[in-house]
Fold this sequence. Notes:
Blueprint: H1 2-15, H2 22-29, H3 41-51, H4 54-60, E1 63-64, E2 72-73, E3 76-77, H5 79-85, E4 92-94, H6 113-130, E5 138-141, H7 158-163, H8 167-183, E6 188-189, H9 213-227, E7 239-245, H10 263-270, H11 272-281, E8 285-288, E9 292-293, E10 296-297, H12 302-312, E11 318-319, H13 328-331, H14 339-349, H15 364-369, H16 375-391, H17 402-406, H18 412-425, E12 427-431, E13 443-448, H19 470-477, E14 482-487, E15 493-494, E16 508-509, H20 512-527, E17 531-537, H21 564-573, E18 578-583, H22 591-596, E19 599-602, H23 610-618, H24 647-651, E20 675-677, E21 681-682, E22 686-687, E23 693-701, E24 707-717, E25 728-737, E26 742-749, H25 751-754, E27 756-757, E28 763-764, E29 768-777, E30 780-788
Parallel strand pairs: 1-4, 4-5, 5-6, 6-7, 7-8, 8-11, 13-14, 13-17, 17-18, 18-19, 22-30
Antiparallel strand pairs: 2-3, 9-10, 12-19, 15-16, 20-23, 21-23, 23-26, 24-25, 24-29, 27-28, 29-30
Amino acid sequence: MADRLAVTRRMFIASTALAMPVTAMAQITGKEVYRDPKAPVQDRVRDLLSRMTLEEKAAQMRSMAYTKASFLEGDDFSPEKAMKVFQNGIGQIGSPSDTNGTKRYIKDAYRAAGETIDLINAIQRHLVEHTRLGIPAIFHEETAHGLKARDATIFPVPLGLGSTWDPALVQQAFELAGREARMRGATVALSPVLDLARDPRFGRVEEFFGEDPYLVSQMGIASVRGQQGTRPLAADKVFTTLKHFIHGSPEGGLNTAPADMSERTLRENFLVPFEQVIKKADPAIIMPSYNEIGGVPSHANFELLQRTGRERLGFRGAYFSDYGGVTNLVTQHHMAANDDEAAVLALHAGVDAELPEGHSYMRLPELVRAGRIPEASLDAAVGRILALKFEAGLFENPYVNKARALRQVNAPASKALARKVAQKSLILLKNDGILPLDPAAPRKIAVIGPNAVEALFGGYSSVNAQAVGILAGVKAAAGKGITIEHAEGVQIVKPDEMGQHLPGRGARYADPAENAARIAQAVEVAKRSDVILLVVGDVPEITREAINAGAPGDRNSLGLFGDQDTLVEAMIGTGKPIVALLINGRPLTVTRLADKANALVEGWYLGQEGGNAFADMLFGKVNPGGKLPVTFPRSVGDLPMYYNQHPSAKTRKRYVEGKPTPLFPFGYGLSYTTFEISAPRLAKSAIAMGETAMVEVDVTNSGSRTGDEVVQLYVRDDVSSVPRPLLELRGFERVTLKPGEKRTVQFRLDPDSLAFWNIDMQYVVEPGTFTIHAGSSSDKLKSVKLTVA
């Protein structure tokens, strides 16, 4: 314990060192140093800390999110209540855009943009003008795939963003998300999620960019650069929060379950995105995960947060707890008997702020007075939090420009970007030539399925009144000669009283007898059609973060949920051509649908412009070019099925039942045109240790339509001191080519691209041969040999 506290003290001293004593500075400037915008941030932090009581320090380490009613009178800010609630100030307010903690939440979960801004300005005005030190608050919001606020722009879920294989486009999306968040008063964004989607049973995989460390790293870098930009923080940017350190693959795919793994697995896979994003994008905040890593919950894991995060990965920012992560040490992990013990464990591990309410950290003053926590530990944590506030300019400009923010709401350019991202995320998994449909050719289309009407957004989403569902998008794009008829087919779960499917609500499963009647009606509609557009998949109530026993989101199977398979069989039985669209949040074992449908498209949750984007693809206005960021297994019994497994895992795939190959492999996706990708060419077939290998790959559009191809580069260490994956993604580029056009794509394989943790757990490049692969997916590759001497 003494060693741990010593490390904490050293980190605090390093982060708040002064060029001269504060008292001397105050005499020179003639005023409080912390109020001087020209003073260095370190000096301002040190000065303000010297003036704070223990209670004021503890308040900066706390948040309020679910207890908004404590400072509201109805929906309005109450100065009288605030005098009691904010007596010592507050560090941050969580999700001001939602109505959590108020009676209004039952019917309306989100405030309008103007209402949110009025609330934020009122809170800031009170804190600045009516607390002793006038410290403004941080406001944090969710931005996993757009700001989680009413009428903010909603992009495809992270799996969809990963499916674009286009970091530049993803960065544009997050630039917009960050700008919308900051313009509405947020300073901190609780994204990106850098976990790896290795177990699709886990309901939270919809929050992940993919299964591969390199792909996730590139998307994470794009997210941080888009939202946060370069430091110091600009006026239209927000601090980003890397999540979740470290989820791993929880046992059974169950949220918060232990993720037991070797140190080698941790370093080779799950730490990689965090390391790369820390190194290349300088994120401000990291959020520990709920679960155990190495048998120790992350919120009490000194080795993870300090030794690994700070000392080895070089993280310099603040650790903010996940919601309830500290109190879970009492209620879930049984490491602490009460909130006092939980606070001691979390602070010693390095958790700077407790979200959402700070129930344990409100006890910090008493714990310091009792000698259980040194005040220096509070100073280190508060110093990092105050540094964020100074860097963001909150002391100089704590208020939000309402008129400017409202001009951002549903702006045409924002909707256009959401549509473009959705277009780029669509993945064509199968096509026998039925697609694209001619929008001018007369035909009858039966739009069937539970996900055809409502625009489904997935988790960490709000509402947008201008969102376009699949049916609406297809109707808007269809020519005059096309007749469209719709039938629900089945319900997956019953919608709430507002007719919506929201991830935060408990699921009311559909009645099979009622679904049987819906299927019969759908059959009649399908029989009258020329082609069936079958829209099936998930709804947020069954694929989500498992909140509690009444709101599960993890699964023990991966087939279409409920009565959807019966609907699929009924549609097959009509003998009509089927174009199937999956709207979902996890890979599904849709072997029957993949076999019998004439075309199959993976959409994930497509965001607010999903209906328009899909219609653009359906009728050939755009050419699909997305690629799978995850592997699709044939059966849940095939798991784990991620592509970059060790050689010995391949023999394990010879089950009595089924095939040893995935239903659809990582990196896979078709187009309306065809491409030829050459074998990779090396500038030099042999390089010295420490050199960079230059690789060129030619890609040619050999078809008749303009389209996108993603050129993928993989590496295999042929013989190594410990087993290495069969393939490791080390580069990719999405290119757009006209018919007959050829382009040469260049890749750099630096030493990091070839290095690994050897048998002695040293990060090295071993001499020998490497196979360099290039192609359009992980199962369609050409190769060349590289020698490292």
